[in-house]
Structures are given as structure tokens and as C-alpha cells.
DNA sequence: CGTGGGCGGATTTTT
DNA sequence: TCCGCCCACG
């Protein structure tokens, strides 16, 4: 039993994990320790050394990107197509199971996946139809409630209201929403997982079939699994399966959406004697960066324990910049990018990481002004665009008439004289008769007036015709026909300027996407249905231009799994990062710290951290203190580029651009943070100053009277 | 039926 | 400040 090429180039720990005996395994893989390598080599090992049939291997990831990467690497390693292996995301695998077993899970064969946007619309519609106040029953919160329960494996009937009328209403909404989904054959993301779990739980025949088939189950990013995903895995693996889990408790940053780091511990309990491997040698970052990261994360409690090390050089210290405000911070970053590119570096070697998307704007402006190309991750993706979703809605309705959400979306798009009144009639009929909008529309035509009835009838005929005309066409011609015959293309052509043009281009791109689409043979379904599911499950590339060499900008969350020679971690201020909302609870704070750890370990050669003393947030100036995470990094790893001069700075009068760094003291020595006394309001703290000289407006937080804005010249303030 | 102004809200994101 | 949503108006 040897396959030297499979173990060549691996370190001892990696080799041990790859060639581990066929028993439950856990690989704790630190950042940059070659986790994906171990996973892919393990698959190759199973096939080539242990002679496991690829047919018996299931590999699960969280993102399509990770799944695609793994598939590619495995194919090139095995030298054969990886089709017999099941490699996919949790949702993708669950989807495949449901397609194969729709009968056993009481789904219509034509069931459609809906994305969170559609889900929110559906929930909003239900809240409206109950005539509930949307400000009290916030659709987003209801959605969050439903998804969180599904992620815990709970149906509405499993929930008790505990005498809480609020909770009772939420449960009711959950129930109604699910009924609505079942009626229209829609399955949301959480439902995919829950149904797939119930399928295995309730159907012993199905369960034993898959247990026999998939003896080897490999899971990536195990720390990100939620309850239902873990329960599903456990069920599938059963007493005889061989699970191989890879994860890093220090990189668990999705607790807020149901991920349970505890699953790592639970796994060790559920599979006693699990073989544990630690990958601690880091191949990515310099010594300084690594030690800074280690020091930071050591502040967390309950870690499984792991210390990254590198045999590489110490490298440069972490550089810390105390910016004056967010524009100064952006200028600083731009200048460092310039330094790098002047030395011949690529712009795409540089990554600007921030806590929240809103922070990207300042950097975009600065980069734009400096004419440095950049790419922002996290925008709208292809299949999420309105025009694409419109076209898909037509296709979905053609495929599945009872899809009410799609019906409502396009019944009057482009406008064909079907207004609120007509729709109300149809909706009422549908509700009264517990039928679909489609059926209701057919029944309502006669009772509507001549004109309205005609319009509605026209729509029904249109859909029927499209179905007839396109039924036997290849997928891309089907799409092409639909976007033209419905008038969608013509409709968007009218849109003013570039926007209309871009939308039409996108619609044409949809045809191209359909042409290049390769159906999933295993799922045994019509190409159109397969394409529609694909569109939801893989919402497509970001809109940004990939081909251009640009500075990369993204949130800390989306940076996970990536690496860059130069990393800027910006907005390192308490309240921003860690975010205000997480500061009050320990678990939240520890998760933010892990996020900081993730950011830190993205850097290969240089890491810059910056914070702004003054920042415009939600339209008002705020004054922050440096993030507590900065203080958790021992000073020997940090070099301050411009040390802060004093704790409470003299008031600064902003000049026209962020370049000015002049500091002025105001008459009367008023500084931010200064305690002052006012004749009428008593004592308070200077919170903000805007404007010049004695005309300046000062915002003071008074102890007894709260926040007041006063004019300096008249306020007669006395420093305390 | 489409647009503009007023209003409230404002982490993180994948599927 | 900025964005998205709702309603009122043309």
C-alpha cells in the first residue's frame, strides 16, 4: 500500500491525516496550513490506495467555489472525471437528494427553489394578507425566525408559544408561510436542508441505501455546520460510515447565521476514538503576522488549542496607522498601494478589508480619485438581478403554473393593464378557494369587466402559448424565445441610458448562460427545471470585472479562505470592529475576535491596520477609540506609523480635503471629550463641534438634559 | 401606471 | 449620509 506521489510534498502532519486509517477523523487545520490539499489528497488516497470506489465518496463544502475547486483538484489528481463522486455544497447535495426522492418527501416533481429575496416577498405578502402591522411584524425578523427554526430542525408544529402572544404570532406566520410554500411547490434554502434531513430520518429504505453507498463522507469547514447540517451528516454516516472532517474553531465566524462551533466537540463525543490531527504549520504568512494573530486569538476561551508556526522569515511588523478621519485613512491606503505598484507589485496583491460594506465607499472614492482600478466583492450577483429574475419568473411559471410568486412578479410586467384591482380580485378568489393564482385567474376572467378580463386572459394565453412553442426547443432557444415574446427585452430597451442597455445585455447573457449550461445527469430532471434550480443555488459571479488588475475590496467575512500579499484591515475602532452590537455579549465578542484573526491571517507579507479618530457614520461625526483587538497584539509585533499624540485632541476644523492635518485650538479651549459647565444645563461632555470660531455649533451631552447643540459664541461654557 | 418626495433604518453572507 | 420603501400625485 503505497502511493508516494500522493504524499510527496506534504509535511508530517498532512501526511498522517491523508493516510490515516479508515476511521472517523478530525483534522484541525489552522489558517494557511494546507487544508484543501489534505482534503483532496485524502480523496485520492481513498481511491488509489484504499481502493474505495469513487462512487462511495461524498465530499461536502459550504460554497460553490470551494466545491468547484475541490472537484478540479481531484480530477487533475486522479486523472479522470470526478462525476461518480458526489462533491457539492450542503444545499446542492440536499437538492439532488430531493430531486431523486421527491415522492418520498411529498414534494411536487416540479418543485422550485426560492432565494431569500423571494422568501422575503412571500412572507411580506402573508403579513399583508393578514392585515398585520409591518412595523410590528417585521418581515425580515419573521424570516429570520423561520430560518433559524428550520436550521434547528424544527417545524411550526414542534414549537410552543409558551404563553407568549408574540411568539404565537411568529409560529402562526411560520405555519402559514410553509403552507403557502407547499402549495406553490417552493422550497427555500433552509427547507432544502430540513427536508433532506427528514428524508433520511423518516425513510429507512432511503437511509440504508445512502449509508451503503457513501461509506466515506468528507466535510470541509466543519466549524460552520449548523444543527441540521450536522444532524444530517450524523444520520448519513451512521454506525458504519467513515467521516473525515476538516475545520478550524478559530475561524468560526458564522454563529449569527446558525453555525455551531460546538459541533466540533460534539463530533468527538458522537464518534468516540476519533483520530485527531492538527495542522499547525503555516505556509502563508510571515512570522510576525502569525505571532500577532496567535496572540490575538489566545484571548478567546474554550478553544481546542492550536498554535500556528512558520519556518519562513520573520518579515515586517504589523503596521498601525492612526488616521485622522476616514478620508485620511483611505489616503493612507492609497499611498501604500501606490508604493507597492511603483515597486512593480500587482494591484490585485492588495486587499482592503473592512467590517461592513458601507465602509467601502470612502476607499472607492479615494481609489477613483487616484485612478487606481479596484474590484469590490459582494455586489449583486448575476442571477439576483431584477431583469434576470423577471425572465426566470416567466420560465418558472411556464414550468410550474402554481408558482404564485412568479405569477405575481410578472403578471403585469411589462405593463399589460392588470392592476391592483384585478389582482385583488384574483388574490381573494385564490385565498377563498385555496387554489393557485393561476387557477384563480382563469376563474375570475368572467367576473371581471370586459377590459380587465381581456387583459388577464391575454396573460394566461401568453403563458400557455409560450409553453407550447418552447416545449421541445433546446434550453437556450427556450430562454431566447421567452425574453423576446414576452416583451421583456423591448420593455427594458425603453429604460433610459446605459441602464436599459445593460439590462438587455444581461438578458442576452442569460441566453448564453443557458447555452453553456450542463445539466446534472444524476438529478434526472428536465433541463429547464435543472437550469432554474442552478440559477438559485449558484447565483453567479460578482458583477465586478475579474480580468482587470485591481485592488481587492471586501468585508472580513468574504475574505475567509483567501490570501493576499498585502492586507489592509481598516476601521479598527471599538464600535465598528468589534461592532457595537457584539460588544455586549461574550460570545459575540469572541466571534468578532475570530473575525479579526481571519483577517490577520489573510496577509502573506505585509499587514496594515488602521483606525480613524474621527469618522462620519450615518451622517454624523463620531469619535472612536482604537479597537481593543489592537491592544491585544503585543507591541513588539507592531510598528506605529504615526503615534497618536494625545487622548483628547484639540478640535479640528476640516479643510476641503482629507490631506490637511492642521489642528487648531478653539477659543475657550473647547476640546472633544472635554467636560464643560453651562449656566442652565449644568455639566456635560463636548460630543461634537462643527463650524468655525465663535459661530461653531457645539454638541454637548449634558448629564441631566441630554444632548444639546449650542452656538459657541453664546453658550458661555466653562471648562471643568 | 410610473415617479418623486418623505420617512425610517442602518453588521457580517451563503445557499 | 444614504438607501430603500411607501404613498401620493400627475
TrEMBL record:
UvrD-like helicase ATP-binding domain sequence ranges: 8-286
Reactions that this protein is recorded to catalyse: Couples ATP hydrolysis with the unwinding of duplex DNA by translocating in the 3'-5' direction; ATP + H2O = ADP + phosphate + H(+)
Binding residue positions for ATP: 29-36
GO MF annotation list: 3'-5' DNA helicase activity; ATP binding; DNA binding; hydrolase activity
Protein name according to UniProt: DNA 3'-5' helicase
Keywords: ATP-binding, DNA damage, DNA repair, DNA-binding, Helicase, Hydrolase, Isomerase, Nucleotide-binding
GO terms for cellular component: cytosol; DNA helicase complex
EC number: 5.6.2.4
KW DNA repair (keyword) present: yes
Family matches, as InterPro entries: DExx_box_DNA_helicase_dom_sf (IPR013986), DNA_helicase_UvrD-like_C (IPR014017), DNA_helicase_UvrD/REP (IPR000212), P-loop_NTPase (IPR027417), UvrD-like_ATP-bd (IPR014016)
Domain UvrD-like helicase C-terminal: 287-561
One GO term (biological process): recombinational repair
Family: Belongs to the helicase family. UvrD subfamily.
Amino acid at each position: 500500500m503505497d502511493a508516494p506521489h500522493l504524499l510527496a510534498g506534504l509535511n508530517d502532519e498532512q501526511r498522517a491525516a491523508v493516510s490515516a486509517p479508515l476511521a472517523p477523523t478530525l483534522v484541525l487545520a489552522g489558517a494557511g496550513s494546507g487544508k484543501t490539499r489534505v482534503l483532496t489528497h485524502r480523496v485520492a488516497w481513498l481511491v488509489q490506495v484504499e481502493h474505495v470506489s469513487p462512487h462511495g465518496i461524498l465530499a461536502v463544502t459550504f460554497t460553490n467555489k470551494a466545491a468547484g475547486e475541490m472537484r478540479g483538484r481531484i480530477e487533475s489528481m486522479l486523472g479522470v472525471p470526478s462525476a461518480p463522486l458526489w462533491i457539492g455544497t450542503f444545499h446542492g447535495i440536499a437538492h439532488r437528494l430531493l430531486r431523486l426522492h421527491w415522492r418520498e418527501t411529498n414534494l411536487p416533481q416540479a418543485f422550485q427553489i426560492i432565494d431569500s429575496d423571494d422568501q422575503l416577498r412571500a412572507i411580506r405578502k402573508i403579513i399583508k394578507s393578514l392585515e398585520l402591522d409591518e412595523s410590528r411584524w417585521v418581515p425580515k425578523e419573521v424570516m429570520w425566525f423561520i430560518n433559524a427554526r428550520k436550521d434547528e430542525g424544527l417545524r411550526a408544529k414542534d414549537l410552543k408559544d409558551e404563553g407568549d402572544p408574540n411568539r404565537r404570532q411568529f409560529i402562526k406566520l411560520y405555519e402559514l408561510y410553509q403552507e403557502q410554500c407547499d402549495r406553490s411547490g417552493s422550497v427555500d434554502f433552509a427547507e432544502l436542508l430540513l427536508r433532506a434531513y427528514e428524508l433520511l430520518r423518516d425513510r429507512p429504505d432511503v437511509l440504508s441505501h445512502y449509508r451503503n453507498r457513501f461509506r466515506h463522507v468528507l466535510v470541509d469547514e466543519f466549524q460552520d455546520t449548523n444543527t441540521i447540517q450536522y444532524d444530517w451528516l450524523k444520520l448519513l454516516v451512521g454506525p458504519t460510515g467513515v467521516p473525515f472532517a476538516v475545520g478550524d474553531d478559530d475561524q468560526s465566524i458564522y454563529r449569527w447565521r446558525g453555525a455551531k462551533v460546538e459541533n466540533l466537540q460534539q463530533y468527538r463525543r458522537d464518534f468516540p476514538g476519533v483520530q485527531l490531527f492538527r495542522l499547525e504549520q503555516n505556509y502563508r504568512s510571515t512570522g510576525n503576522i502569525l505571532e500577532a494573530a496567535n496572540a490575538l486569538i489566545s484571548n478567546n476561551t474554550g478553544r481546542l488549542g492550536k498554535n500556528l508556526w512558520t519556518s519562513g522569515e520573520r518579515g515586517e511588523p504589523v503596521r498601525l496607522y492612526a488616521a485622522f478621519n476616514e478620508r485620511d485613512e483611505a489616503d493612507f491606503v492609497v499611498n501604500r498601494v501606490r508604493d507597492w505598484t511603483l515597486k512593480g507589485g500587482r494591484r490585485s496583491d492588495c486587499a482592503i478589508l473592512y467590517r461592513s460594506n458601507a465602509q467601502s465607499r470612502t476607499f472607492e472614492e479615494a481609489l477613483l480619485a487616484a485612478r487606481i482600478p479596484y474590484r469590490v466583492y459582494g455586489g449583486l450577483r448575476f442571477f439576483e438581478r431584477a431583469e434576470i429574475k423577471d425572465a426566470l419568473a416567466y420560465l418558472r411559471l411556464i414550468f410550474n403554473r402554481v408558482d404564485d410568486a412568479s405569477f405575481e412578479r410578472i403578471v403585469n410586467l411589462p405593463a399589460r393593464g392588470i392592476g391592483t384591482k384585478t389582482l385583488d380580485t384574483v388574490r381573494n378568489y385564490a385565498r377563498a378557494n385555496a387554489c393557485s393564482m393561476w387557477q384563480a385567474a382563469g376563474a375570475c376572467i368572467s367576473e371581471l369587466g370586459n377590459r380587465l378580463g381581456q387583459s388577464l386572459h391575454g396573460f394566461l394565453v401568453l403563458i400557455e402559448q409560450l409553453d407550447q412553442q418552447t416545449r421541445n426547443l433546446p434550453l437556450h432557444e427556450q430562454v431566447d424565445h421567452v425574453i423576446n415574446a414576452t416583451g421583456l427585452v423591448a420593455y427594458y430597451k425603453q429604460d433610459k441610458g446605459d441602464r436599459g442597455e445593460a439590462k438587455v445585455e444581461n438578458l442576452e447573457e442569460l441566453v448564453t448562460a443557458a447555452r453553456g449550461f450542463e445539466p446534472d445527469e444524476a438529478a434526472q430532471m428536465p433541463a429547464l427545471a435543472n437550469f432554474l434550480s442552478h440559477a438559485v443555488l449558484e447565483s453567479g459571479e460578482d458583477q465586478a470585472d475579474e480580468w482587470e488588475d485591481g485592488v481587492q475590496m471586501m468585508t472580513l467575512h468574504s475574505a475567509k479562505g483567501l490570501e493576499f500579499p498585502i492586507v489592509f484591515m481598516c476601521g479598527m475602532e471599538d464600535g465598528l470592529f468589534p461592532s457595537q452590537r457584539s460588544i455586549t455579549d461574550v460570545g459575540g465578542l469572541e466571534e468578532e475576535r475570530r473575525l479579526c484573526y481571519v483577517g490577520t491571517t489573510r496577509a502573506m507579507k505585509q499587514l496594515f491596520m488602521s483606525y480613524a479618530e474621527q469618522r462620519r457614520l450615518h451622517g454624523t461625526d463620531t469619535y472612536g477609540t482604537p479597537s481593543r483587538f489592537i491592544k491585544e497584539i503585543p507591541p513588539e509585533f507592531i510598528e506605529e506609523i504615526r503615534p497618536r499624540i494625545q487622548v483628547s485632541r484639540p478640535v479640528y476644523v476640516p479643510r476641503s480635503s482629507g490631506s490637511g492635518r492642521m489642528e487648531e485650538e478653539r477659543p475657550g479651549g473647547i476640546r472633544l471629550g472635554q467636560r464643560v459647565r453651562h449656566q442652565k444645563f449644568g455639566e456635560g461632555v463636548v460630543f461634537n463641534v462643527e463650524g468655525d470660531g465663535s459661530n461653531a455649533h457645539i454638541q454637548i451631552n449634558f448629564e441631566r438634559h441630554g444632548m444639546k447643540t449650542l452656538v459657541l459664541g453664546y453658550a458661555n461654557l466653562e471648562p471643568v
